[in-house]
Amino acid sequence: MNADSPTIVTGAESPVSSIVTQPSAARPTLRIRPTKGWAALNLRELWSYRDLLWILVERNIKVIYKQTALGMGWIALQPLIGAGVLSIIFGRIAKLPSDGAPYPLFVFCGLTAWNYFSQTAQRSSNSLINNAQLVSKVYFPRMLIPLSHTFSTLVDFAVMLVMILIFMAVYGMPPTLRLAAIPGFLFLTAMAATGIALWFSALSVKYRDCNYALPFFLQIWMYASAVVYPTSMIQSERLRSLFALNPVVGFVEGFRWSVLGTSALNPTMLWITIGMSVTALVSGAFFFRRVERQFADII
Length: 299
Prior knowledge:
This protein is mainly alpha-helical.
């Protein structure tokens, strides 16, 4: 090529491609915030964590009877000894009436309902404190912890129910269709026991005195609940209705009616017991939800 020849310069330009940035898909964000004032129970959340509830129930059963020589034999031995002592003191010495039923069976029916109620309340009272590491580090409905004891103590109740059937065979009392009412009275007992458990478990986080006061309170409550004596000793119907404001009275008389067929239970007492059980459960649940926002900070 000479100087006169035209110079042809070719260049390949890279095509300009417009890059449009697409907005990334928004990821769902779950923010856990403390509630304010009176909070809803949020039963749907409890149901979604039902697998955790059964894990806690299984753990409770294993912890109580782990590394014990008699194991679950203690479930039968403790009420059996208790019924024997009460039968001697109040049946033989004090000669309290038993509505025509054998006094040991009469007392054992009362202890069956009472033991389920008291053990649920007592084991749940310090359940949040015993699970402090779990409460302060992991989010889950805190109500599951005391609620797990409501179900784990059903094992104790089942053993005592078998012992009642053995007592009935020993005293020659055939089972009747009234036994089918036991699940209904058990459900009422569980409602009231859970309500008391929610109250005391929530209070014990801030006031550790509850752990010392509850056993003493339950001991007095037992003797005020017609466990060792019949409600029929109260002659006035008005006083019986006032006496039934203690929901345990209705549970005890209901179990005796189911097993023995004789009881002071009447429709008025039954409706009062239902109302008090629902009140205990609802009030305990709402109070627990109101104060649980403080658990992780003060436990």
